[in-house]
């Protein structure tokens, strides 16, 4: 009799109705933004994130991912991404490169890409464990070029303000040297004369060359970002503008805010305004305001390798980047009508490039860079976490005897595929003074990708802890 009751059509219809109601009330969707500046390892990170989840029931080593350690994970599959105008994240291509005999790192981000995962699991508590056999969490992961992120603060500037900011940056002697060719070409223009489009194109090209040279020297705060990575706007007039040297503004007595119609100054200001209004603003409104979780990847080690100026430029760039997102505590209603990021991970990447005993120092170094920005996040009620990770671990740690003393070392392959064993040195807990680099400096290694030798899951450091922080609460 009891069995027939539970199979009665009316009971089954009631159960289905309760299930649908519960699923509407239970948050089963996470939109994750993976951000970071150029070279921070975003593509490798997303490749590993997808790989750890898809292979979680096979060989993946994820002891701190609670839904797996509690045997509640049923399976994970890739699904059709929500925004069909984005590139499909090239997970399969990245894995194919990593499985080559001479493995290659995944290609760097060249535009927006996206991947959607469906994660099926059993709940550990709550109403749904009684009315649903299993639950599915939808995880959307979106990757953005780091170069584009730093354009967002330009939304709060006009052309004159941007000119002033560029003038401040050119007080840096190294930047001024890199800008010499651009400055020479920009200084011979009469900005009150009628604009010549060919001149604008040529000088804008020199300004782009200056930004690329800065990037090659380790600078991160570079605007406009689309000059470096134009995407679909390559050769478009909207990218053919540049700042007017401050000395020329004074010499020619220019009124930047009310320039002569159709003059160089007028066209430059107009193109800057068009760039902010028709390129940056739609990009921000259409994509950035809908995230509720975020990972910011930071390559502290490369910044240390490049020197004092590079390190401080990275710190300044991080402050700019974080100000461009919506942060604050989230609940069901706010997520439906005004999503805000309520969990944020700061991840120092490439933790496999230092010995395990130095990873705590790496996290402290990252925290020292984020000290000011973090105060506002705490006030806004955002849960934050700092960690050191290796999305795809390329080295093994061990001990070596040197002069009768055991020291920690790393073993991996260099860019030529040759095996190397070394001690990379200590990691400072805060930025050293400028003269440290002239006396000693840093030289952390670069490794080739690991040989997978038939393994399905990628080796990593702390990706399981990061996964549990990002989505573990949605799967409890």
UniProtKB/TrEMBL annotation:
Cited Pfam families: DUF463 (PF04317)
Domain of life: Bacteria
Entry-linked InterPro entries: YcjX-like
Name of this chain's protein: YcjX family protein
Organism field: Paraglaciecola algarum
Phylogenetic lineage: Bacteria, Pseudomonadati, Pseudomonadota, Gammaproteobacteria, Alteromonadales
């Amino acid at each position: 009799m009891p069995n027939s009751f539970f199979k009665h059509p009316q009971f089954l219809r009631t159960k289905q109705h309760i299930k649908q109601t519960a699923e509407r009330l239970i948050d089963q969707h996470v939109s994750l933004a993976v951000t970071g500046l150029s070279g921070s390892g975003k593509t490798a990170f997303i490749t590993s994130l997808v790989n750890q989840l898809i292979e979680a029931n096979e060989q993946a080593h994820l002891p701190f991912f609670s839904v797996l350690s509690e045997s509640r994970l049923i399976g994970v599959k890739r699904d059709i991404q929500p925004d069909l105008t984005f590139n499909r994240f090239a997970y399969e291509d990245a894995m194919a490169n990593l499985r080559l005999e001479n493995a290659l790192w995944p290609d760097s981000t060249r535009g927006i890409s996206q991947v959607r995962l469906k994660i099926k699991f059993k709940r550990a508590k709550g109403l749904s464990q009684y009315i649903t056999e299993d639950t599915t969490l939808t995880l959307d992961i979106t990757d953005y070029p780091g170069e584009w992120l730093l354009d967002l603060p330009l939304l709060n500037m006009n052309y004159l303000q941007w000119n002033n900011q560029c003038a401040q940056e050119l007080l840096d002697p190294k930047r001024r040297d890199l800008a010499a060719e651009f400055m020479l070409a920009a200084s011979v223009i009469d900005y009150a004369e009628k604009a010549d489009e060919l001149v604008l194109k040529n000088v804008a090209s020199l300004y782009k060359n200056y930004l690329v040279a800065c990037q090659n020297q380790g600078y991160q705060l570079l605007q406009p970002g689309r000059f470096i990575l134009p995407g679909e706007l390559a050769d478009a007039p909207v990218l053919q503008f540049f700042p007017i040297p401050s000395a020329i503004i004074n010499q020619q007595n220019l009124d930047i805010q009310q320039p002569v119609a159709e003059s160089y100054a007028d066209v430059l200001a107009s193109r800057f305004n068009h760039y902010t209004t028709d390129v940056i603003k739609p990009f921000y409104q259409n994509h950035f305001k809908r995230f509720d979780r975020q990972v910011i990847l930071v390559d502290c080690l490369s910044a240390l390798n490049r020197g004092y100026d590079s390190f401080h430029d990275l710190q300044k760039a991080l402050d700019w980047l974080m100000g461009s997102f919506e942060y604050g505590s989230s609940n069901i209603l706010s997520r439906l009508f005004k999503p805000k990021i309520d969990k944020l991970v700061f991840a120092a990447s490439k933790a496999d490039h230092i010995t395990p005993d130095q990873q705590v120092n790496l996290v402290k170094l990252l925290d020292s860079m984020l000290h000011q920005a973090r105060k506002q996040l705490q006030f806004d009620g955002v849960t934050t976490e700092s960690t050191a990770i290796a999305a795809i671990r390329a080295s093994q740690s061990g001990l070596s005897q040197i002069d009768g003393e055991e020291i920690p070392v790393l073993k991996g392959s260099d860019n030529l595929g040759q095996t190397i064993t070394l001690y990379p040195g200590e990691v400072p807990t805060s930025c050293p003074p400028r003269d440290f680099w002239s006396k000693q400096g840093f030289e952390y290694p670069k490794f080739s990708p690991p040989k997978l030798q038939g393994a399905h899951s990628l080796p990593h450091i702390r990706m399981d802890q990061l996964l549990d922080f990002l989505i573990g609460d949605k799967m409890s």
